[in-house]
Write a structure and sequence with these properties.
The chain is mostly helical. The chain has two domains: 48 residues, Orthogonal Bundle (Arc Repressor Mutant, subunit A), CATH 1.10.10; 144 residues, Tetracycline Repressor, domain 2 (Orthogonal Bundle). The protein is built from ten helices and no strands. The longest helix has 29 residues.
């Protein structure tokens, strides 16, 4: 990796950690420069402004999240486990996601904080990420529907709302509201999978 790329990555890492700890508004480029051991001029040379620095962090993390999931990982898990019980498929998917989220706690804190207040982040997530997540959710729901007897009122939308609601609240609860809690990914995936199936099937 070139020196310039290492410097840019160091700036991003320091920024992520500071924003995750203090929030965007309370993080200054002066503090970022001090902790990254660079000048503020270097930050502005690479990222032009604090806002562009934040946008880079959010977009990079969202792309990383998507590439490790809907582009490849989740589709592979679904296809590999087609013949298995849908509950096992869901548990495997959840476990993989929780492990991923655990590895990227600080980046996700930044994204969740910004999604509540930043329209650009909201729009990017909706246009670039959410549409793909919906396709994966619909594919998984179709498999479940073919193998299980579902309650009449459960459709693809309600399944998606339940699944992603549980996932997003788990991230929010553990990483923002209760950051001292650290539950085992396998146990969490099993419990949430059981809760979802108890709610949607007979």
């Amino acid at each position: 990796m070139k020196k310039s790329e290492k410097t840019k990555q160091k700036i991003l890492t320091v920024t992520i950690n500071l924003i995750a700890k203090r929030g965007y508004a309370s993080t200054s480029t002066r503090e970022i420069a001090e902790q990254a051991d660079v000048s503020e001029a270097t930050i502005f040379k690479y990222y032009k402004s604090k806002d562009k620095l934040l946008k880079t962090i959010v977009i990079q993390t969202m792309e990383k999240l998507f590439k490790s999931s809907s582009e490849k990982k989740l589709s592979e898990i679904i296809n590999k486990n087609k013949s298995k019980n849908p509950e096992i498929i869901l548990k495997t998917l959840l476990e993989e996601r929780f492990n991923f989220f655990d590895e990227h706690k600080n980046e996700l804190k930044v994204i969740f904080q910004e999604m509540l207040i930043n329209k650009k982040v909201q729009n990017y997530f909706k246009e670039e990420i959410w549409s793909k997540m919906v396709k994966i959710s619909d594919g998984l729901f179709k498999q479940i529907k073919n193998k299980c007897t579902l309650k009449e009122e459960i459709d693809g939308y309600m399944f998606r709302k339940t699944l992603f609601g549980m996932i997003f609240f788990t991230i929010l609860f553990e990483n923002i509201l209760e950051d001292n809690i650290n539950l085992d990914s396998n146990k969490q995936a099993t419990l949430i999978s059981n809760i979802i199936f108890d709610g949607i099937s007979f």
